[in-house]
Amino acid sequence: MIESGEKLKQLREEKGMTQQTLADMLYVTRQAVSRWECGARYPDLITTKKISQILGVTIDELVSGEKLKENIENKPILVPKRENVIQIVMYTMIAAMNILQLLFAAFAYWDDHVQFGRFSYTIMNCSMDLERIVTMLAALCGIYISSKDKMTARITGCILCIPYIFTNVNFFAFVAEYYRMGAPGELIISSWFFGLVLPLLMPIYILMYFFQKKRSLPYYGIVIICLYSIILELRFLVNQLISMYTYGLADPVFVFTNAIVGLISAVLMSCLLWYQAFKWNKSKLAAIKYK
User: Would you say residue 131 has pLDDT above 60?
Assistant: First the structure.
C-alpha cells in the first residue's frame, strides 16, 4: 500500500490540492483521503492508479506493490462514494421488502384466525419467517457496515450467502411437512438435488469466491447463481398465479403482492451480489496485471 501517508500528503500539497479536492476527483469522501494519509486505511489498486495519474507520479513512487496485493482483500469493495450510497440504498430496500413480507405473513395468520377460528402455523411457515427475519437483520448489518465504509469482500460474502443457506433450511422444513402429512414417498431424487445439494453448493461457492486470496474461482459462477435465484423467484410467482386461477384463493391480490415483494427482494439481492462480485473480480485482475 502507500508506504507512508506523509508521501501522499506531500504529493497532494505539492499539487496545491486540498483533501476535499482530491476526494471529489476520486468520488470518495474527504474522510477516506484523511484516513489514507494518516495510515489508518488504504485505497484499493484501481483507486491508487487514479491517484498516481492525478498527482502525476508512477505507482512505484506512490506504493509498495507487494503490500498492495497483500492487503487488497481487507479493503472495501466499493470505494467511490456514489457506489457506496447505492449499496446502502439497496440494502435498505432489501430490509424493507423482508419487513413487508413479515407483515403480510402476520396479516395472513390473523385473517385465517378470524375467518376460520384457527391459527395454522406450520414448520414451513416458521422456516420462511425465520429466513425473512435473518435476511432483514443481515441487510441492516449491511447498511451499518457500508455507512462505516468497511464492506470488505469477506463481509460481503458472509452477508450475501445467508439467503442461500436458508434455502436448505426451507427444504428440510418442506421435508418435515411431507413426513407430517404422511407423503414422503413423493420426494424424488431431483427434489433432493434441486432442494438440498444445489442450494448447499451456492453459499459455499459465494464464500469461497469472496474469501479467495488468488483468482481461482471464475466470476461467471456468481453470475449463474444470481440468474438461477431470479428464475426461481419468477417460477414461484408463476405458480402463485396458477394457484389463484386454479384453486380460487380467497385473496388473490394479497397473495400476488406478497410474491411480487419476494421477487423484488431476490432481484435486489442478486444484483448486489453480482455487482460486488464484478468489482472484486476487477480488483483481482488489476492486482494480477500489476504483478
Answer: yes
Selected residue with higher pLDDT from 32 and 268: 268
Dihedral pair phi/psi, residue 76, rounded to 5°: -55, 140
Residue 2, beta-bridge partner list: 63
Q: What residues pair up with 76 in beta bridges, in sequence order?
A: 152
Longest dimension (CA), the chain: 78
- Segment (H or E) for 234: helix 220-247
Q: What is the pTM of this model?
A: 0.72
- 152 pairs with which residues across the strands? 76
Calculate the CA 258 to chain-centre distance: 22
Of 266, 258, 260, 264, nearest to 105 (Cα)? 258
Q: Which residues pair with 63 in a beta bridge?
A: 2
122-141: b (≥16 Cβ within 10 Å) or e: ebbeebbbebbebbbebbeb
CA atoms of 54 and 51, how far apart (whole Å) = 5
Across 236-248, average pLDDT: 74
pLDDT of residue 1 exceeding 50, the answer is no
